[in-house]
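Usage example:
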Amino acid sequence: MNLSKAFNLELYKLKHKYFFLSWLLLTVAPLAYLLYNLRTFSFSPHIHYASVELVYFYEQSEIVWLLALILPVMASLLISKLIDLENKNENWRLLITANEDFKTLWSVKFLTVFFLMELTTLLFYLTAVFRLHQILGAPIPVGKLLLSFIGLSGANVMTLTIAQGLAVFYRNQAVVLIEGLFASFIALISPLMPRWFCYLLPWGYYALNILATNESLGRGSDGIMNWKIIELYPNYVLIFGVALLFIAANVALMRALSKREI
Amino acid sequence: MKTPVIKTENLTKTYGGINRVDGLNLKIPEGKIYGFLGANGAGKTTTMKMLLGLTPPSGGRIEIFGTPFEENRIEILKKTGSIIENPSYYGHLTGKENLKLLEKILDVSEEESEKVLKLVGLYEERDKKVKNYSLGMKQRLAIAMALLRDPKLLILDEPTNGLDPEGIREIRELLKSLARKRNITVMISSHQLSEIEKIADIIGILKDGKLIFEGTLKELERYKKLKTTLETDDGLLGLEVLSDYHPKLLDDKLVFENLKKEEIPPLIKKLVNAGIGIYELSHEQLNLEDLYFEIIGERDEPK
Ligand SMILES: Nc1ncnc2c1ncn2[C@@H]1O[C@H](COP(=O)(O)OP(=O)(O)O)[C@@H](O)[C@H]1O
Ligand SMILES: [Mg+2]
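Running the assembly step on the lines above writes:
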């Protein structure tokens, strides 16, 4: 069973399932919000950037907030749709007795959703970066942005692995859907939480990829709060290390679940 | 003698320390319909799952088409169609689309799909979504899917469960003609003898995971017994007085097995002498259905 054939089959099964429409809605609405925000972008005299790079980085932190909100829900919703196709009517039995391999099915389903999560992440990055480039005319700090993008991909791997495991293990898809909401909540609040909190929970890893934050400079003579934007340096060794662990966990989970009775 | 299509040696499955399938030695010959009988919970589904690689055995060996299952799983499954418990299908797709999907998986042509759809009588309904099919239609679709790979073996777990008598009859005729025309070996399970006795060449009866009978219906009939039932005004006393005849007390009635006609008058005399009143006596041959329920130790409400 080769992968491209397995992808084809997956697409065929998704007829009338509003799978891609769900993705589109989850992506387009927040993307429109982002575009609207950027359209009205203007420099405030109360926010101080030490360099033009920091403008990009600060905007990146805004995107990560949005993504942290959307991606865990997206992971749960989409993987649940793909897994529930087979959970219903014990279709695993139909597939396995027709010599389809559980590991191939698992991988194809993972990769399909992972690809869509990455596409959403990428669209956000491109939209923000190009719009800012238009406004600022300044060179894009490609290297650091790219690293943070890869870091976010690591968080996507973690989120999706957990969601997929739950979707297969618990027939009742309410479990994975509620987990998705919970995960989004954690991911959303984690930038406000202490670092150790982010390190401990897989959904905290979105926040660990944030490239800039603000620091209060106190009120100015006009009584308005002034802010300084400061750069953050994500610990990529740790992020990639944990992501790799999750890839290993994903493979182990796949092996274990392939042996379960169906 | 030809090698059996399915052969198991000491096949065992343990759940939570209990042998739910216990040392099964099955032999299913080619081209026959094998009726696999047993009460609910006897272990039929578990056995069939093991035969299809859906759950690993805890012990024992499986050979299908004369080769060990584990080593030839892929080749064996290519020639084996199956339904376990309930039909599997994608409800949001039409009947035709369900078969199309399987066509792609199995690498068979569209003509094959049309052929099996006609065979199970679903061709006219092929463009309806399967979730709108009746249970009988879903069962027939599942059979069509099982037939799509041109199987040499069909493993069908209670394929007529929940169907009305007409639906049961249709599926029965279909299986009969398949076994005959295509020389397909069929293993079909049921908890009702009546659903199977008209098609099975051989039956195996499973009880608590053990095979307690394997043979033809004719051979099973040899175990038919005479049953004599006596209703009296004092069953307990009767039990004592007639202890030489080894009766059982069921529903306050005395039940005797294989009592000869000549033995009845002296027996009644004994009761009368003991002052026991007799209401009713019946002396009859158990039918096959009764015998079956007696063997599996359960009386199902008749359908
Ligand atoms: N996955 C499982 N875990 C634990 N016990 C099981 C499992 N599957 C079946 N059993 C038990 O094994 C016995 C046989 O079940 P089954 O094979 O479904 O019987 P049948 O199909 O003859 O009705 C039952 O007592 C059932 O509860
Ligand atoms: Mg069963």
